[in-house]
């Protein structure tokens, strides 16, 4: 008689429908598959429909056999863009999502593919009600933002940090002393973004139900705050969730970069970078959500032109109208290339790139860390403000632009930062620090590193609980 076949734990990985949320969860999924787990990645119908055709092809043809499924946000044709407001979108999604998640888990069970554990984005905390209360299976929350920022938001959720802010400085456990202006912007402008603020604050309301809390960061980067949070959460740091073959600068599979919401202009960007001197190009990008004002776009255009550096500038389609006419008319594509979207991982690993002028979104920050790219921090909102503080003052791997009293970052400040990184003695120190963090990031995901060990422990415990 043959041995009874061993049960392979099946995790359903549920991502909030945004590129910066789903990509780290896909990368984490790949690491779980490598350790023998079965994974189904789930996001909304509308999200899968709006990604590039390459995305779905790359997932379905991925050598690690990533299964893809959908739930509904109530807006299968168009998602958030089809809703009247984020508040209405959220209300609908929070009603329809749990029901369709429950249907999906039932469908998978009846197809002989039962789910053992739901790993849900913290934003979609209600997935743990479905997993734990309805199906009695395991549940984990996955936080795509840094532990420093999660801890601040958790303090707000617990009302340990009272709003509106009344102090000029805050001492939060595990964090450096933060001026009020260094806290995530939602803590002082939450009235302008009630929907986002609500999603962010409520990420913690099911944390008591979580069997694990997984965070896309690594221990060495945030050790103090991780130590503090581990006292109160079943926390495991499992990042940086950046495709690991990029850490070795080896492109193993052309379909390995995850999801892209726009076409990436791969050939034009890389061809343009290929003949630029080593470390000479300023790569400029503000991520997938926030945009600059028209005035700020013009100031940035002046800053880049006047600094006379090579630059690769991502201006999304929706923001192209803000590029000043004079800039387009004098466009010198040898000196600067403007694209609507680029293959950021390939760009950051390119030898020609000397620094990254970034909004400090958490994925961009981790990507800069992973590839040892010195950073010019130009945060716009939310966690970016606190990430910028860490980049400059804690990790010392970048500089930060100054804004004037109206909030505008002037061309002089942009030019000075570029010079400081590319040409000054301090720039060399910053580059060395960036390389130090790159090595620590790589060590953490290499065999036996802190994140690698945490993933191994997670998988072992899961196997034990599911056997
Ligand atoms: C949002 C919030 O703005 C940010 O504050 C939060 O930390 C995460 O969610 P987003 O604006 O998308 O994120 O920025 P970021 O987290 O940096 O993610 C952007 C992703 O898009 C990165 O993975 C980056 O590699 C990718 N990207 C960006 C491209 O692939 N091409 C581009 O041209 C620009």
TrEMBL record:
The keyword Glycosyltransferase applies. One of its GO terms (molecular function) is quercetin 7-O-glucosyltransferase activity. GO terms for biological process: monocarboxylic acid metabolic process. Signal peptide: none annotated. CDD domains: GT1_Gtf-like. Its EC number is 2.4.1.-. The keyword Cell membrane does not apply. Keywords: Glycosyltransferase, Transferase. It holds the Pfam family UDPGT. Belongs to the UDP-glycosyltransferase family. This is Glycosyltransferase. It comes from Arachis duranensis.
């Amino acid at each position: 008689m043959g041995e009874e076949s061993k049960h392979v734990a099946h995790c359903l990985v549920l991502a909030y429908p945004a590129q910066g949320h789903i990509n780290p969860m896909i990368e984490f999924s790949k690491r779980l598959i490598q350790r023998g787990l079965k994974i189904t990645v789930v996001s909304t119908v509308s999200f899968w429909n709006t990604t590039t055709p390459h995305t779905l092809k790359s997932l379905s043809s991925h050598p690690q056999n990533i299964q893809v499924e959908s739930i509904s946000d109530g807006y299968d044709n168009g998602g958030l863009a089809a809703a009247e407001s984020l508040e209405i979108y959220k209300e609908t999604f929070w009603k329809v999502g749990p029901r369709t998640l429950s249907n999906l888990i039932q469908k998978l069970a009846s197809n002989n593919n039962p789910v053992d554990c739901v790993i849900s984005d913290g934003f979609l905390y209600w997935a743990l009600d479905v997993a734990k209360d309805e199906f009695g299976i395991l549940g984990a929350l996955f936080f795509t933002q840094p532990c420093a920022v999660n801890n601040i938001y958790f303090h707000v959720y617990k009302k340990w940090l009272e709003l509106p802010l009344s102090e000029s400085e805050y001492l939060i456990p595990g964090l450096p002393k933060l001026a009020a202006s260094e806290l995530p912007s939602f803590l002082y402008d939450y009235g302008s973004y009630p929907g986002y603020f609500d999603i962010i604050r409520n990420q913690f309301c099911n944390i008591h139900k979580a069997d694990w809390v997984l965070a896309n960061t690594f221990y060495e980067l945030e050790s103090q705050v991780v130590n503090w949070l581990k006292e109160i959460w079943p926390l495991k740091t499992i990042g940086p969730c950046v495709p690991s073959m990029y850490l070795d600068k080896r492109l193993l599979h052309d379909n390995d970069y995850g999801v892209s919401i726009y076409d990436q202009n791969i050939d034009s960007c890389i061809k343009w970078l290929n003949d630029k001197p080593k470390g000479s190009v300023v790569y400029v990008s503000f991520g997938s959500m926030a945009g600059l004002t028209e005035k700020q776009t013009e100031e940035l255009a002046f800053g880049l032109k006047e600094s006379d550096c090579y630059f690769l500038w991502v201006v999304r389609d929706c923001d192209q109208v803000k590029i000043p006419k004079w800039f387009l008319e004098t466009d010198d594509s040898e000196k600067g290339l403007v694209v609507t979207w680029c293959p950021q991982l390939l760009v950051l690993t390119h030898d020609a790139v000397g620094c990254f002028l970034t909004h400090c979104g958490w994925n961009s920050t981790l990507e800069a860390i992973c590839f040892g790219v010195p950073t010019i921090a130009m945060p716009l909102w939310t966690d970016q403000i606190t990430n910028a503080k860490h980049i400059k003052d804690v990790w010392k791997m970048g500089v930060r632009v100054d804004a004037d009293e109206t909030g505008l970052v002037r061309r002089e400040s942009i030019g000075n930062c570029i010079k400081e990184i590319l040409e000054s003695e301090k720039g060399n120190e910053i580059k060395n620090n960036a390389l130090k963090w790159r090595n620590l990031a790589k060590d953490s995901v290499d065999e036996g590193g802190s994140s690698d060990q945490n993933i191994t422990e997670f998988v072992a415990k899961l196997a034990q609980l599911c056997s």
